[in-house]
Each structure stands twice: as C-alpha cells, then as structure tokens.
Amino acid sequence: MIRVVLPAHLRTLAHVGEREVVVAIEGEATLLAVLDALEARFPQLRGTIRDRASGARRPYVRYFACKRDLSHVSPETPLPNEVCEGREPLLIVGAMAGG
Amino acid sequence: MSKVRVLVGTHKGAFVLTADGMRRDWRIEGPHFAGWDVYHLKGSPVDPNRIYASQSSSWFGQVVQRSDDGGITWQQMSNAFAYDGKPGTHQWYDGTPHPWEFARVWHFEPDPHDAQTVYAGVEDAALFRSRDGGASWHELAGLRDHETGSQWQPGAGGMCLHTIVIDPGDPQRIYTAISAAGAFRSDDGGEHWKPINRGLHSEQLPDPDRTVGHCVHRIAMHPARSQVLYMQKHWDVMRSDDAGEHWREVSGNLPTDFGFPIEVHAHEPETIYVVPITSDSYHYPPDGMLRVYRSRTGGDEWEALGRGLPERHCYVNVLRDAMATDALDPCGIYFGTTGGQVYVSPDGGDHWQAIAEHLPSVLSVEVQTLA
Q1: How confident is the model at residue A53 (pLDDT cuts 50, 70, 90)?
Q2: Hey, which of B6, B53, B141, B268 has its CA 20 to 30 A from B302?
C-alpha cells in the first residue's frame, strides 16, 4: 500500500477529508503505477495532476518523497523503498505560485 | 411570482444570487468551487435547474461541474477535451507555429432545445459538443480545421473561443467568436464554418481588413431577430443585418468604442448595452466613472446610464461574459466587475444598485428568469 498526500484542492475534488490517501499497487511501485491507481480510485482527479492528452505532469504540480524532488525522474522509475514500504508518503504538491 | 437567479463566475469560485421579481432583496450563496477560477456558468433553457460550470486552475487544469438542482449540489463531469485527429499548429505570439493545446473552457452554451446537448468554447480555440450532459465531449473540428486555422493567433488572454451564439429558430446556425481570429458561422450544426468578418477593420493588423485576425470581444443577438448581430470588437462596436455577412460600425457618440461585453434588451431588439472602457492600454472606465451606455436605435446613438453607479475613483473592468439580461418586464440588466461588484438595473438601465460588492474579480454573469 502506498501512502499519497494530496493538496487541498484535490482532496476536495476526491471528497476525502484526510490529508493522506492509500492506494494499492500490483507489481512494481513506480510513480506511473501510483498515479494510475490514484486516478482509478478517484476518477475525479483525471486531468488534474497529469495532462489528459499527453499524460505529462502538469507544470505547477510536483512529486516529492523522502525529501527528494521526483518530478523530473522517469515515471517508470521505482519509488524509494520507504514509500513502497509505507514508511514515507508520496507527496503531490501544488507549486507555490500566484495568489 | 417570478424569480431571477444570477450565476456569477469569479477568480475564486462561483456564486448564485437569487431574488424575486422585484429584484430588490438578494440572497447570495457560495462560493462554490472555492479558490478556483470559474470562467463561466450557464443554465439550460430547457431545464433551468441544469447548470454547467467551468472550474479551472493553473495548477490543476480543467474541471467540469454540472448541477441538476439549480446550483445547490454539483457533480463532476468529463474534462476530456481531446482535439480531433492530429491538432496541427496555430501562430504563437511571436508568429511561429505553435501546437494546439487545451487550456480551459471559457464558455458553455447549453442547446436551446435539448437539455442533454451543450457546447463548450475552449482555449486553444475550438468548439466541443456533448450530447450526454457533459459526460463526454467531441470536437466540431470543422472550425479549427478551417483553412485559416494555422494563421490564428492568441490575444493577450490566450487563444480562446469565448462566444457561442445559437440561433433558436434554426439550431443548425451557430456563431462563434475567437480572440484573435474573429467571428465564424456554421449553417450545418457546426460541421462546416466560414469567417464572417467582412467590414471589420483592425488597425493592429498588417492588413486591417483581412479575413481573420480580428480581436472580436463579444457577439450578441436577440432571439426573435436572428439576422441582426451586434459585436463589441477590441475597438469598435459593430452591427450586421445579414447574419454576419457584412458589418458596419455603430460606435456613434460613445466616449470610447473599446470594451468587452455587449447585450441586447430582452424585449426590444434595437436596444443594446455596452460598457465603454478607456482603451486597450487602460482597462478601466473613462475618467474613473463607471457608465453603461444604451442605444435604443440599434447603435449609432448612445446615452450614458449612471444612476447608482460609481461616479469617481472607479478603475474596474467589465469582462466580455460578465453582462446579462433577465426576461422580466421591465427587463433587468446585470453586470459584474473585476473589482467584485455585481450591479443590477431592474428598469432597463435607468437605475442601478449593487447586489454584491466584495466578491472576487468577476469573470462571468448569467441570469435565469424562473417561473
């Protein structure tokens, strides 16, 4: 099970009150697998994290885990062990920008 | 007794304002979708309790919301706006080719006869249609595929399709307007399109009279007289008496003919309203004095309407989709400002009152007249 921290606006869309949600992954826990599982569980989030047409991360969204920025690594890369083992969450973050 | 419901889209959410037919005492509900840009909300003429809302953010993209109970509860609909085929390119600000990329929905236009059909005008400019109440969207690609499409260029706000006007007497006839490509008309339900910009003159273009490239801000039509169109262009207020085949300028004695919205009185097809704005360099009213201008002659002759509106130190703008009318008698005129005020005139423009004063910057105003 992978713990995922969602930004406030996406928690509202997903109708979840908790800061963290949990998704189950079959096979290797990559960023891609987690995002696919997240969107499968919460279809309301389709297009809000990744562009619907290209699948690319939206420009003002970042992926953090274990104090590292995973936004620019290949989405096929396995997530850190701490995330895979549930000791650390994957953070989906809305960038600080605008007002 | 009849009732009015005003749908207000703002930079930080949507608000629903209601009053009885007297239009004196208002109830404000919201914000819905708090913290998000709500570019536009509009109700179905067939089923007024069905309302579509465009919720978007630079961070999290486009969300489409639909209410079936008059704006009390909402459900999220599809946000899959996929261009038909390989999208190709339009011109970027610097004149280089730029791929078509979906950014947001600027305008929803529910079909006048079918509650399940709704049109969406989007950025980068394209027209989409849903026949299942927003559950799925399909592009009417004949517009974007027009031979001039590769020449279209964005205005300062992006290359947006912001105006959709459907002829209620002939739903096969649809008008759209794109900044900064111009106006287009389809006579076959959106399959094929032609530019209708003859008579528009834009000094900002190398050829001021060219077929496309005009920054049309808004088009309005009275449903009972669909051959007549009114247009607020970047500069110039225009009129067509032949469904857009030819346009002539009707700016007349306006203090400035720059502005964004234009509206037609519900019962008088020759009575129209604009909000003159100083210039494209100064997006606020002349002399800091907010005035709506009314023409009872379909243009050319205009009168200032300011009773109840700010007379000084007013430096707000009124955006293209932020003006609307109700269908009561006398007709009510409504508009919202970038300063967060919503004003109503319950007597066709003679007197105005603020019905909301401290909302976020207003992006759009639509009015529903309910039995």
Answers
A1: confident
A2: B6
- B72 assigned to some structural domain: no
The residue among B33, B60, B122 with the most chain A CBs within 10 A of its CB, best to mutate, is: B60
Domain that holds residue B152: 82-354
Residue B7: what pLDDT?
Answer: 98
Which pLDDT score is estimated for A99? 52
- Phi first, then psi: give them for residue A59, nearest 5 degrees: -60, -35
Whether cis (ω within 30° of 0) applies to the bond prior to B156 is no
List domains and CATH numbers for chain A: 2-94 (3.10.20.30)
- Within an 8 Å CB–CB cutoff, is residue B102 touching chain A? yes
- Residues of chain B scoring pLDDT < 50: none
Assess A85–B contact: CB distance below 8 Å, yes or no.
no
Task: Point out the residue among B58, B59, B80 whose CB comes nearest to the CB of A52.
Answer: B80
Q: A10 at the B interface (CB within 8 A)?
A: yes
Residues A98 and A12: beta-carbon distance below 8 Å: no
ipTM surpassing 0.90: yes
Percent of chain A with pLDDT over 70: 98
The CATH number covering residue B282 comes to 2.130.10.10
Q: Apex CA B90: angle with CA B87 and CA B91, to 5°?
A: 160
- Please tell me if residue A56 touches chain B, with a CB cutoff of 8 Å: no
Residue B20 lies in a domain: no
The total number of structural domains in chain B stands at 1
Q: Which residues contact A23 (CB under 8 A, 6 or more apart)?
A: A1, A2, A4, A34, A37, A38, A41
Residue B40 is assigned to a structural domain of this protein? no
From the list A53, A61, A94, the residue facing B102 with the nearest CB is: A53
